[in-house]
């Protein structure tokens, strides 16, 4: 198939949950299909990452996202009572480039990653579209509203309501809509009963996250014993989670084990996260690291005490694959099927969480469990998920063809060269 792939950010490097998922989709599909990638970048790091995507993409169009312009558009959307999270990612030049691509290429399907990019695919197109919504964003903003005070709670509540209406329209417009968990899919089905909604779980690379292949450097071993939190540390739910653990559970644990540390690993730590590192005897904040696996390997346990959580926490999957015990909040655990949840310590009470974690640390690290890794491979393995994603795209293309689409097909077709106009700061390769 020839597939047009739209993403709100360059899916490389794979240092955030959305980038990990998008990169996996592109790499998996590129083995048998032609991928044209259209996306934005908002950091120089991402701009220079395009070379890493060329082996998987026939064409790449990457456009800069202006910090000021995007925020001005978002503010205008708030005033006009439109979803600001969609306006933030809107670009006339991107819309023009996508329109040119659709009109000049014989695409079999469009795979749109994230609701923010759904607006670039209109309902009049002949090419069938699949929307990977990943999470129900409207529910995320509703949670933010519930946990905020005026005026932010009013703003978040409006965004949740507007996005809910948009999600309903998008699910009816796209041939299929994908969510990463059963819980998210059920939530969207309740608000969008006419959409065709399916589950496509996250992938965890158990061959990469294999403790037998990872050595622990001395500077990491020197931190032991420690409890680990891994994730993008400029993301509000992650910030809330580490602050909660530091203030509520860690003091109870250090009262009985003074040498215990809390290690926070992840890119772009916010000011609030960096301030935790002032407690140098108890907390280490690493920032970006070249490889997170040694930190997992040396950890006594991983924690994911999410107060706000949507979808799958990759840190839980990766920790389990590395054979490291995981303690998570009920909000984080709900994303996993029972065969995985049974291997997670699910606890919301700080005292009970501290007690259970201390028990694990005192009993020593848990060795990798073959049965657990087999369960992870079955539910979150690459090959099964790739087969499912391909079948969804093929079915969308076939259904469109049955309804008279002139462009849909289920074979790899030769395509004419894509002609685009130069856009300031954009990269076309």
Query: Judging from the principal axes of the Cα atoms, what is the shape?
Result: globular
Low-confidence sequence ranges:
404-422
> Pairing-aware structural class of the strands and helices?
alpha/beta
Spatial strand arrangement across the major sheet: 7-6-5-4-1-2-3-14
Q: Indicate the radius of gyration in whole angstroms.
A: 22 Å
Number of helices: 19
The largest β sheet comes out as: 8 strands, mixed
Q: Helical content, roughly? A: 40-55%
Describe this structure in words.
This protein is an alpha/beta fold and 429 residues long. Helices cover 45% and strands 15% of the residues. The protein contains 19 helices and 14 strands. The strands form 2 sheets. The protein has an 8-stranded mixed sheet with strand order 7-6-5-4-1-2-3-14, sandwiched between helices. Helix 1 (17-30) packs across helix 19 (382-402) and helix 7 runs antiparallel to helix 8 (152-173). It starts with a strand and ends with a strand.
